[in-house]
Amino acid sequence: MAKYQQLVDQLRTQIEARIWPPGEKLPSLRQQAEQSGLSLMTVMHAYEVLESQGWIVSKPQSGYYVAPRAAESRPRLPTQAIAKTDQADTNSFVFDVLQATRDPAIMPFGSAFPDPELFPQRQLMRSLMEALNLSLQAVTEPGDWVVIENPSFYGALQAIERLKLNAIAIASDVEQGIDLDELEQALQRWPVKACWLMTNRQNPLGFTLSAERKQQLVALLTRYQVAMIEDDVYSDLYHGHDKPLPARAFDREGYVLHCGSFSKNLVAGFRVGWVAAGRYAQRVQRIQMMSTLSTSAPMQLALADFLSTRSYDTHLKKLRQTLAKRKQLAQQALRRVLPAEAHISDTPGGYFLWITLPEQINATQLYHLALQQGISIAPGQLFSSSESFSHCFRFNTAWPWDARAEAAVETLGTLIGQLAQSVAVKK
Ligand SMILES: Cc1ncc(COP(=O)(O)O)c(C=O)c1O
Q: What is the topology classification, in CATH, of domain 80-88+119-307?
C-alpha cells in the first residue's frame, strides 16, 4: 500500500473512532511529517485525499480540521487503484456463480439474464461478438490504466484482467452514478487511457445518468482525450415513454465507443452485439478481422429480419411491462423478509435490485448458504476488488413470480436472520 494511503487509512480510522472528534484541529503538515517520519509531500497528498473524501476541511491560514459531521456522515468511497499485480482472481468466483445459475434446480436470482420465456425465439446456439472486449483492446495496451465504476459489471473486471490492464475504480452511487469530481481527479492523477462505463441502468446498481451528467461526462473525457467504452446493453429496458439517450449522443469528437447487445432484450443465446466506435472504428474492425471471433451471418440476418418488422417494438413494450410487474412483486416479497435496516435500491427500469444488508452480514457467506438451499444470488464481491460491498447483493427479478420464488425469498430472509444472529452472538 502506498505510504500516503496508509496515513489516510490511519487518520480515517482515528476520526471514525473519534480520537479526532469533529471540529478538532489536526497536526499541521510539518508536525504530521515529523511525527510520522513521512515526507511533507506524502502528508500533503494524504490530507488532500481525506479532504476530497469529506473527512477533513482546510481553513485558509489556519490548517486542517476534522469535518463537522465526519464520523456520522458516510463519506464517499475512496477511488481505488487496482494495479494488475494485486488484482484478485475475479474469474473463478464469477464462473462459480454463473455456473450455478444454469442448473434448472437452482432459483436463479443471481443470474444476469432474464427468463428466456420472455423472448420470442429460443436458441441454443452460442456465438460471440464481443463488442466490449474488442473495443477495450482497440484503445489500450497491456499495462494501461482504465477507469471503471465501483461497483462495476464483473465482465469489465474480467476483461481488464485478461488484457493485463490496471483499473481505477471510481465511487458510484445508486442515485447519482459515477462521481464526476472523483473521475476528474483520477484523470489528473493517472495516465488514463480509457473508461468502461454504463450510463443507462448500470449493472449492478441500476442507476441511469441524467442527460446533463452524460453531457458533462463526455465533455470531461474529451478534454482529457480519453476513450469511453459505453456498455449500453440495458438501454431498451427503460421506464416510462422515452428511451434515454446514450452518452454517445453528446459525443462530437468520436471518443465514445457505444456498445449494445440483444442478450438482455431479445435473445440471450445469440450474444450478438454491436459497437459504434467513432474515431476507433477502423482499429476495432482490424482487431476483429485478426482475431478468430466472428458472428454467424445467418444469426445476424435473422435478427435484421426481425428488427425490420414492427414485432420488435411490440415485443419490447410487452417485455418492459412484464419486467416492471415482476420487479414490483419481488420488491414487495423482499421487503417482507429483509431486516428493517436493509436497503433495496429503487431505480426505475431494468430488472436488477441492489440490496444493501446491515454491514455485519457477509453476502458471500449468504451466497454459499443460499446455494445449499437451491437459491443463487450475486454477492457484492463479484462487482468490486474492494471489500466495500461485501454486505450487498444483486437480485435478478426477471423470473416468473410464483410460489417457488416466494418460498425462495422466504428462505433467503431466514438465512439472513440466522447470519445476523450468529454475528450478534460472536460479538
Ligand atoms: C453490463 C453488461 N454488459 C455486457 C453483458 C454481456 O452481454 P452479451 O451477453 O451480449 O455479451 C452483460 C451480461 O451480463 C452485462 O450485464
A: Aspartate Aminotransferase; domain 2 (3.40.640)
pLDDT tens per residue across span 138-168: 999 999 999 999 999 999 999 999 999 999 9
168, 145 in Cβ contact below 8 A?
yes
Cβ atoms of 82 and 234 closer than 8 Å: no
pLDDT band at 290 (very low <50, low <70, confident <90, very high): confident
Mutate-to-test residue for ligand 1 from 263, 270, 354, highest number of ligand atoms within 8 A of CB: 263
For residue 22, pLDDT beyond 80? yes
Interstrand relation of 192-197 and 227-231 (parallel, antiparallel or unpaired): parallel
**What pLDDT is attached to residue 75?**
52
Q: Compute, in angstroms, the gap from residue 394 CA to the centroid of ligand 1.
A: 15
Q: Which CATH superfamily is domain 313-426 in?
A: Aspartate Aminotransferase, domain 1 (3.90.1150.10)
Q: Residue 126 above 90 pLDDT?
A: no
For residue 110 and ligand 1, the question of a CB distance below 6 A is answered with no
Is residue 418 over pLDDT 80? Answer: yes
- 232 within ligand 1 shell (Cβ under 6 A): no
Would you tell me the crossing angle of helices 154-162 and 131-139 to the nearest 10 degrees? 50
Q: Could you give the residue range(s) of every CATH 1.10.10.10 domain in the chain?
A: 3-66
Q: How far is the CA of 266 from the centre of ligand 1 (A)?
A: 13
Beta bridge partners of 170: 149
